[in-house]
Amino acid sequence: RTATRIICVSQGVADVLAAQHVAENRLRVVYNAIDSRIALPPPVELPPTTKNLVIGTVGQLAARKGNLHLLQALAALKAEGLLVNCLILGEGPQRAELEVASQSLGLTEQVAFVGFQPVPLAWVQAMDICVLCSSKEGLPRVVLEAMLANKPVIGSDVTGTRELIVHEESGLLYAYGDLPALTAALRFVAKSVHAALCTQVGVGAWLEVVIVTARGARCIKVTWWTWCIAAGTAVVKLARCTLTLALWSIAITCWAFAATWGTVTKLGALAIACGTIAHTVTAYVAVGARGSAF
Question: For the chain, what is the total number of helices (H) and then of strands (E)?
């Protein structure tokens, strides 16, 4: 009651507090963020026996994190003949219960409880798919880190998580507690990732890259079209650079021999020189606008 401002890590948290009659003029949203400029740690080395796709989750082993739902979905996939490995990072009061559930569901060989890890991003790097099955979140850092590591993300459609994942654009959302929906999302992404790996097409060709700014998270969709556009842009830039060099060569040649030419020829040389200067200026103005040369 004495706080003049209350910092909320997501708009969803602010909405929850406002619904509990906290004055909205005291609420300020300051999004959780990660530094996208830092070098990613190398992935941890998994046992050589790990031959299946690796699904993983990071967080406290508590009921609200929904890890039991994840185990049940993995069991459903196994019943379909789709075998995956699963890494569960974190510690908490539910660990013993989850280990028993893993055993009873026949997942002992597939699921590894690796406990608390000081550098979880190194483990996220080793995952093929990152999953978060929580009943509620503030603004989950693990989702940001998974996106930074270019990993497919599946999350429950709850406060916080839904502000980071745009369904079918930057990941997949499912209704919390809906086991068939979670299983379907895991099945779809697992098969998509498997197909991408088999065809040696980078998974990042269809994932999302998340750029965290001071005002929040902004998702930029990266599809295979992006790579085509990038290649075409590179060709155009090379052509413009070549044209610029050619025009300057012509202009310099014209200037060097202008003394021996007539008036009309000199005017032509002057026009070429002016066109060259204009082309160069235009190119560098474009550099300032787009941040790239030519």
Answer: 8, 10
Q: Specify the DSSP class assigned to residue 4.
A: S
Rounded Cα gap, residues 214 and 195, in angstroms: 36
Task: Report yes or no on whether pTM surpasses 0.70.
Answer: no
- pLDDT on residue 287: 38
Alpha helices in the chain (DSSP H): 11-19, 67-79, 95-104, 120-126, 141-148, 179-198, 224-257, 263-290
Give the dihedral of Cα atoms 92, 95, 98, 100; nearest 10 deg.
-160
Cα atoms in the 13 Å half-sphere on the side-chain side of 138: 11
DSSP 138: S
Q: Which has the closest alpha carbon to 46: 126, 147, 163?
A: 126
Q: What are the tens digits of pLDDT across the range 254-277?
A: 666 665 656 666 666 667 667 666
pLDDT tens-digit series, residues 277-286? 666 655 544 4
